[in-house]
């Protein structure tokens, strides 16, 4: 086997919850990145993938376990490891040239040498002629090229890419991905290993020599799929489509709390659990697709993904919501419509709302808790902060906000409560006035 560059051994990371307790984000992560390979890491949002990359880059410290770089413990950042972020992370007041030179300047390199190095990488990454441009004058794809150039100019052994293509439109992302692969395969960059965090299953299969499936709550490597197909790969080839099917199968082979789809035995959530990030329109759109041709109530997940305009991550969130609410279930890597889901599709708007509200009360403890609190309060309304404080005991600030936003959207649609966007108050719906007989 090729030489290990970065090794994670039983790595753990936790953050403090609102009650002072430790909330585990990563636990027992074992991973080795070797010379000559591209590895893709897939998993749900909030599963700790980005935290793992930041630990590998030395940007944050692990709380447990060991991180080795070239066999030596890693303390702080390593010169041989560089990271590309989803958000571009450029300094808006600096030109392309100055943004790319920044790391070299921080190392104390002479102006002439850093200018030469930056110009070479700028040309390599396809930005010649834009050296004097500011980030606001560039498209999203060009800004990401600057972010990649800024990493490559440091001549890293290891390149960590944290959803580097996800903020771009599909065609721009594909083109940039192919160009990075070309640079890698032609040896025009000195990088010896690449780790890509992605939500895009096809992207992972097209790029990687290994695909890792990350579990969540807490985050850790749950499954691995080696890929031996030679490069370049064709997305429409039977071999690639089979691998995509296999990745879907691996991602749905475990319960939702562990990083895949929710199983029939685990549709019940606890009060402070993360809710699937799915909006009503997408949920109803998927149900409509399932009931119609060519699926007739049962769909192979890759084929269903092709029929939607959702990303893989968005689709899995929607499917988790449908399973949670009893409108669909999972078997052998396929999603099937339940009898209730079939009735829901055929129902009118009012009946749909009633069915939706009933399922929420049965399967989503947070929404049932909100409704109970409203009914017990004499005024019939409560501030959202009350529920956010509760959620912060088990979820991070960001996750608590997301969970409550989803609960409010679902609860409003199910006609269980109303929400005042100006005051942040949740209240019982006003009863329809009945005409006196």
UniProtKB/TrEMBL annotation:
* One protein family per Pfam: AAA_assoc_C
Report whether S-adenosyl-L-methionine shows up as a keyword of the record: no
Record SUPFAM superfamilies: P-loop containing nucleoside triphosphate hydrolases
Which PROSITE patterns does this entry report, sorted A to Z? ABC_TRANSPORTER_1, ABC_TRANSPORTER_2
GO function terms (MF aspect): ATP binding; ATP hydrolysis activity
Q: What region holds the ABC transporter domain?
A: 6-241
| Key words of the record | ATP-binding, Cell membrane, Membrane, Nucleotide-binding, Transport
Entries under CDD domains matching the protein: ABC_NrtD_SsuB_transporters
Q: Which Gene3D superfamilies match?
A: P-loop containing nucleotide triphosphate hydrolases (3.40.50.300)
Tell me which InterPro entries the record gives. Answer: AAA+_ATPase, AAA-associated_dom_C, ABC_transporter-like_ATP-bd, ABC_transporter-like_CS, ABC_transporter_ATP-bind, P-loop_NTPase
KW Glycoprotein (keyword) present? no
What family is reported? Answer: Belongs to the ABC transporter superfamily.
Task: Please give the name of this protein.
Answer: ATP-binding cassette domain-containing protein
Name the source organism.
Duganella callida
């Amino acid at each position: 086997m090729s030489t290990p560059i970065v090794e994670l051994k039983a790595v753990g990371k936790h953050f403090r919850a609102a009650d002072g307790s430790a909330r585990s984000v990563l636990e027992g992560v074992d991973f080795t990145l070797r010379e000559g390979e591209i590895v893709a890491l897939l998993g749900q949002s909030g599963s700790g993938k980005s935290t793992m990359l930041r630990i590998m880059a030395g940007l944050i410290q692990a709380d447990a376990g060991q991180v080795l770089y070239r066999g030596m413990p890693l303390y702080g950042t390593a010169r041989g490891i560089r990271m590309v972020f989803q958000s571009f992370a450029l300094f808006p007041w600096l030109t392309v040239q100055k943004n790319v030179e920044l790391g070299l300047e921080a190392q104390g390199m002479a102006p002439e040498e850093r200018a030469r190095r930056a110009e070479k990488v700028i040309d390599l990454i396809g930005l010649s002629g834009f050296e004097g441009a500011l980030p606001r004058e560039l498209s999203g794809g060009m800004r990401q090229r600057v972010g990649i150039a800024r990493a490559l100019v440091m001549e890293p052994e290891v390149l960590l890419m944290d959803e580097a293509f996800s903020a771009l439109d599909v065609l721009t992302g594909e083109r940039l991905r192919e160009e990075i692969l070309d640079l890698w395969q032609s040896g025009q960059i000195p990088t010896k290993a690449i780790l890509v965090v992605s939500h895009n299953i096809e992207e992972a299969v097209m790029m990687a020599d290994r695909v890792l499936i990350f579990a969540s709550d807490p985050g850790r490597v749950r499954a691995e799929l080696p890929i031996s197909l030679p490069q370049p790969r064709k997305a429409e080839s039977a071999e690639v489509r089979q691998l995509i099917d296999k990745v879907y199968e691996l991602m749905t082979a475990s319960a939702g709390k562990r990083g895949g789809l929710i199983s029939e035995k685990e549709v019940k959530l606890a009060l402070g659990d993360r809710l699937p990030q799915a909006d009503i329109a997408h949920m109803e759109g998927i149900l409509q697709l399932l009931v119609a041709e060519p699926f007739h109530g049962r769909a192979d997940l890759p084929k269903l993904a092709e029929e939607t305009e959702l990303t893989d991550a968005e689709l899995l969130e929607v499917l988790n919501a449908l399973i949670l609410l009893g409108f669909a279930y999972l078997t052998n890597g396929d999603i099937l419509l339940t009898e209730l889901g079939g009735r829901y599709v055929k129902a009118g708007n009012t009946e749909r709302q009633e069915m939706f509200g009933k399922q929420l009360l049965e399967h989503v403890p947070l929404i049932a808790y909100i409704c109970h609190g409203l009914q017990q309060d004499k005024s019939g309304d409560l501030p959202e902060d009350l529920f956010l404080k509760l959620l912060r005991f088990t979820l991070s600030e960001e996750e608590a906000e997301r969970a409550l936003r989803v609960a409010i959207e679902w609860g409003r649609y199910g006609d269980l409560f109303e929400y005042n966007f100006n005051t942040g108050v949740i209240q019982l719906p006003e009863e329809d006035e009945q005409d006196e007989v």
